[in-house]
Every structure is written in structure tokens, then in C-alpha cells.
Amino acid sequence: MVADPHLKRLLKAIDSSPDPERAYDDAMAREPAFQDFVGRTLETVAPAPAAADAQGSEQSSQSVTGKNGAS
Questions:
Q1: Where is the composition biased (Polar residues) (predicted)?
Q2: What is the pLDDT of residue 19?
């Protein structure tokens, strides 16, 4: 749960806005607490780009070289 009352009000305002995309963009531009909240949320629900890139590169090189780890 979100404990910060200001952040709670901001989330409610975005959610109930007639133009939530604009409200989100405004909050991202002006509210450091919202920027932090979004960053932490994305870290929780999405893999880190470096980890995803490393895994994708490993799979790509195996496809290109025909190596699959079997000897």
C-alpha cells in the first residue's frame, strides 16, 4: 500500500482524470515522489534491461553458432 498521503492523492487524481495520460505526464514532469514510485514499480514488475539483454545475447549467439550447450 502507498503510505504517502500526497502520493495517494496524486494517484487518485491521475486515475480519475478525464485525460489520465496527460495527468501522468504532468506528474512525471513535476513530482519527484511520483517519479520514484514509478521507477520502483517498474523495477518490481519488469526485468532489469541489463539482465534481459544478457540473456537475449546468449540465446542469439547460440542460435547463430548452432551451439546449445550439448557436447
A1: 56-71
A2: 98
Q: Quote the pTM value.
A: 0.60
Which residues have a Cβ under 8 Å from the Cβ of 20 and sit 6 or more positions away? 14
How many whole angstroms separate alpha carbon 42 and alpha carbon 23? 18
Domain residues for 39?
Answer: 1-43
Q: Does residue 20 sit within a domain?
A: yes
| Residue 67 forms part of a structural domain | no
Distance CA 50, CA 57 (A): 10
48, part of any domain: no
